[in-house]
Amino acid sequence: MDQVDALAVLTRQLGRRRTQRGGERLTDNTLIRIAVDLLLDRAEQLRGNTEDELLASLKESTDR
User: Fold this and answer.
1) Which long-range contacts (CB under 8 A, 24 or more apart) does 45-54 make?
2) Span 18-42, mean pLDDT?
3) Model pTM greater than 0.90?
4) In this structure, what are the phi and psi dihedrals at residue 53, rounded to the nearest 5 degrees?
């Protein structure tokens, strides 16, 4: 499953788990904005030259 498909599945799962109906609609773009905000908040933790290295540096910093 690629990232686009996995994101769509996650969006649907979260939508089904919502405890309150109405209000802001949960979309793929909602989750993308959350991911970007998180990435920007943790920008100082990024280390590496490749996508794999950058991702690993973020995962290491959250595992502590």
Assistant:
1) none
2) 93
3) no
4) -65, -40
